[in-house]
Design goal:
177 residues, 8-stranded antiparallel β-sheet, rod-shaped
Amino acid sequence: MNIGQKLKELRVLKGLTQEELADRAELSKGFISQLERDLTSPSIATLTDILQCLGTTLNEFFTEDVEEQIVFGVEDYFVKKDEELRNTIQWIIPNAQKNIMEPILLTLEKGGATYPDTPHEGEEFGYVLQGSIVIHVGAKSYRAKKGESFYFTPDKQHYLTSKAGAVIIWVSSPPSF
């Protein structure tokens, strides 16, 4: 960890000059400058005082932020092919079951279907990328074709079918796939 650079970033974030920080911490501007350039190292007590002036603690300062993955490609997908129902589910966001939403890419082969899902709390949303589908919710059925979307609350048994095949982005909240 580059302590000097991180101290400088915090100082700038707080809108302080080196001189203002030095005054608050009862240090010299030259010492703050040397710290920020990693030319000297502070004692734990001095670092604690500086961090207090910057509104943080030793623990927060030394906790490394783990960079979160934002963009996912095909190599990140988890794929499950179901020969019996003639469908393929691709979880397009890895470990999405820990999130509020779980988006999948669903490919229904000709005559394919999804497993009937039992009623649950939440929301279901989908967008048809290719082909057409029938959305079965309870005793009712709804058709959707390429370019159309669907949304329902899954308080009844529900599943999708396709006579000619289809590709769908399907988002479930909370995750249920």
